[in-house]
Amino acid sequence: MLRTPLVRRLANSAHALARPTPRARTLSVAFSTSRPAASKAPAAVPFTSDKFPELVRDSRFGSVTPEHVARFRDITGDVDAAVISAGTNTAQELDVYNEDWMRKYKGRTTLVLRPKTTQEVSAILRYCNEHTLAVVPQGGNTGLVGGSVPVHDEIVISTVRMNAVRSLDEVSGILTAEAGCVLEVLDLHLRERGFCMPLDLGAKGSCNIGGNVASNAGGLRLLRYGSLHGTVLSMEVVLADGTIMELGKPLRKDNTGYDLKQLFIGSEGTLGMITAVSILTPPKSSAVNVAMLGVKSFAEVQEAFRRARLELGEILSAFEFFDRTCMDLVKRHLPIREPLETKSPFYVLIETSGSNKDHDDEKLATFLERLLEEEVVQDGALASDTAQAHAMWNVRESITEACSKEGGNFKYDLSVPVPQLYAIVDAMRARLADLGLLRSDSAPTAPVTNVVGFGHIGDGNLHLNLTTTGWTRELNDAIEPFVYELVQARNGSISAEHGLGLMKAPYLEYSKSPEAIELMRRVKAAFDPKGILNPYKYFPRQ
Ligand code: FAD
Ligand code: 2HG
Ligand code: ZN
């Protein structure tokens, strides 16, 4: 138990307390943000259309012909990097765009287009619309709901070559960047100029700002900076028919009519292609402190959060939690040491960010000492330098990758009232155990090897992950819609941050009324009358 050392460290030495510890990030973060590394040759990813035969190809869509490919070569200036096609490239080169990050979904596209300019995107979409060719917009392909890859042979339009920073207004902090800019690259660009991105996630080394906005990503800093619905000020989009539009203005205030850009935030490629984004970026904090706490129960996680909001107030910038199984998985699969000595059923990661180092140090130290004295927490450590802070964040940010190394994953990102959050994990464990599907001493070969809970407590967002020996229909049906029923019963949302994609499209009714879904369909039809943008996803099948 680290209680004594923590108290001593807090009481005896101001030097031992964290000095300014901005999370030192490199582009090649310690844990991969691309696809899961495998210790042995990974099994081939099954085609989505084989796994889900009910997803019949829509016969209204045309198939790609050599004439189409020639036309796309014309549009993109016949640059090799712009066109990846079955005629010229290998299946492996196409797989990068056909397979998702989890290796759970796989399309059969024979054509990937990587335009460089908005005008090229416009010409491509106009042509696709005229020829009723279905497309999938793709950014960094780190999405976790099967939305970023084709189901059948939809053409992938990737933003990876649209990666210029257009401008940064250093007075207001308004950044305008093309959709294919990698989140971490933008963050580093800003940090050199005294700002930072208001968004941070484990996939930052690969995901694109266009993909972040299209999926309305939440991440680790939402508690501090709010959602993209507040920070995105305007965007440039290309509609299905090729029309280029500026939605909103790069201004903080603009009350002129419907705020159409909001529809694109979280639209997951179904309304148009986002080609550039203007976003309000905050000043980077000069004083950042990180602490990890071990607590005995989820009730104590909540109490620690309640107290953090009250006592840390404006400097609280992240409050994350994870359970013991997450810690075990991270240690098993990644070269990461446990920051605390005592094993606890739950862990909390707290970050504060401010501008007055001494003030923040004292505030956090006093807060932690009180929680220890009152036995709200049983163990804890305060990072004393950047390396320690980074090590603590590494544990939290590596959970997704650690789960992926266990085998198959079922992932749920749920919003429910905070007091009921972990009850979902318990209910899932109980159900799987009852069905004999959860591995234990009495069920040593059961397919579900772990059920873990972690997430953004500050946002009421639970990540429920099941690691399994593989995907089977039977397992899928044992979990869904049961998990969505649990959420609906608590008036929650079936997607707090990863979106609907292919995975949750059939279950939208667990979060939205029939009237709301019908209105969404009418919006979709207004923007994309032929339905060529990211078909088979987002909406329940009719
Ligand atoms: P993609 O995966 O390529 O696409 C996502 C969706 O957006 C797809 O439907 C696609 O069609 C659409 N799209 C992409 N680009 C465009 C565009 N330019 N115009 C229109 N539509 C487009 N999410 C969170 O919310 N919080 C997290 O903390 C978080 N952590 C993650 C950690 C890891 C390790 C991983 C692998 C994923 C994580 N995610 C998280 C999932 C998250 O949605 C993505 O990482 C990210 O926001 C997607 O960006 P992307 O560029 O990879 O988009
Ligand atoms: C996170 O918060 C991401 O780390 C990924 O949203 C969650 O892997 C997951 O389920
Ligand atoms: Zn998350």
Description:
By secondary structure, the chain is an alpha+beta fold. It has four domains: 48-158, 2-Layer Sandwich (Uridine Diphospho-n-acetylenolpyruvylglucosamine Reductase, domain 2); 165-280, Uridine Diphospho-n-acetylenolpyruvylglucosamine Reductase, domain 3 (2-Layer Sandwich), CATH 3.30.465; 285-400, 2-Layer Sandwich (Alpha-Beta Plaits), CATH 3.30.70; 406-499, Alpha-Beta Plaits. It contains 19 helices and 16 strands. The protein has helices at 3-12, 48-51, 66-75, 91-98, 118-130, 183-191, 209-214, 222-225, 228-231, 261-264, 298-312, 324-333, 357-373, 386-397, 399-404, 421-434, 473-479, 482-489, 514-527; strands at residues 83-85, 111-113, 135-138, 155-158, 165-169, 174-178, 232-238, 244-248, 273-280, 287-295, 316-323, 346-354, 379-382, 408-415, 448-456, 461-468. The strands form three sheets. The chain has a seven-stranded antiparallel beta sheet, sandwiched between helices. Strands 5-6-9-7-8 form a five-stranded antiparallel beta sheet. The longest helix has 17 residues, at 357-373. The structure holds flavin-adenine dinucleotide, (2R)-2-hydroxypentanedioic acid and zinc ion. Flavin-adenine dinucleotide binds next to strand 3, helix 7 and strand 9. Residues 105-284 form the FAD-binding PCMH-type domain. It catalyses: (R)-lactate + 2 Fe(III)-[cytochrome c] = 2 Fe(II)-[cytochrome c] + pyruvate + 2 H(+). Pfam families: FAD-oxidase_C, FAD_binding_4. Keywords: FAD, Flavoprotein, Oxidoreductase.
